[in-house]
Input
Amino acid sequence: MKSISLFTGAGGLDLGLEAAGFEPTICVELDEDARTTLQLNRPHWRLLEPGDVHAHRPEGIVEQAGLRSREAVLLSGGPPCQPFSKAACWVNGKLAGLADYRSKTLEAYIGVAEAALPQVLLLENVRGLSRPGNNSALELLESGIDRINHRQGTRYRWTIVHANAADYGVPQTRERTYLLADRDGRIFQLPDKTHSSDPGDGSLEPYVTAWDAIGDLDTDTWDEALGLRGKWAELLPSVPEGWNYLWHTSRGGGKPLFGWRTRFWSFLLKLVKGRPSWTLPACPGPATGPFHWRNRLLSQRELCRLQTFPENYAVQGAHTSVRRQIGNAVPPLMGEVMGREICRQWLSVHDEPDGTLRFLLSRCGGQPLPYPVQPVAQRYLPLMGNHQSHPGVGKGPGAQARLGHRE
Output
């Protein structure tokens, strides 16, 4: 089934869609490292030349794909999420949304959708993308397909579903929004969950854990490049598995070094073996987790496992580029789950008899006890004190400073 892939990145979504029976006729990606990753791992996937979606007429992209209007089955894409993400809100105090230049990719998506008129539209992004409101991304997307329907006689309408990847076997709690539309106007139903955090729920499989994903790679030696650096590097060993900086507040079990909820959630965040990983960020700072339970950075192989990339998949570039490509990717397992469900509900294509998901990881037994917690390094003890908790949303020092600046 022929597809067009926009904002392909390292190829996570398309790997999953490929396992469900789709084959990209063109991949649109600007980042040179990501393009190298695609060329190395999937040399038969054609790359748009040049890779900037804004450098082409939408009709030209469809032509480079070798397709005619209505010939593509699927148009997929995961445009840059930073304009709509919580992380951006923490840094800037608000969501940039359509004011961010990167949101122009949504207009490009709508343009290619009208040029290609595929049977199915699929968009993946953070939940902020689907937030309603005037001049919102959702309003842009809804008005865009309304125009297409009016001009082309189609009946696209968005179905918006929210999914936590851990509920479908990904060893990572990663909540994302999927927007889907069918050319004939049919509604999409989110597939039933297959995994649960409740060990007593016999109808579902237990969550796939961080240990399941990377336990077989656990060793007491590692590459020097995975060692921690920066102001807080020596504090991480005093944080237990599954905790973050909140351990060192008045409500935690450590030293009162910080105020409750006065730092971002992933500050000094550490994996715990018996649960899925937290969301892997694309551009983490030196103190941004999740970190390995052995108080180090996660290796490329471990990051790929937690995202369900295939074992032989090699992401190209320097360490920061590799982290960005993997962190921005859709887990291939989620692409496979959504692709199979699109086939079942809208394309009358059903699974093979055994129905086995290609990207579902095997479990790893022999989970050891938690890694030992170390005492707080002497250099941090002067931070001990009676720290105030965060006063609430919109009342913190950063928000107040921004308010004063506006006034």
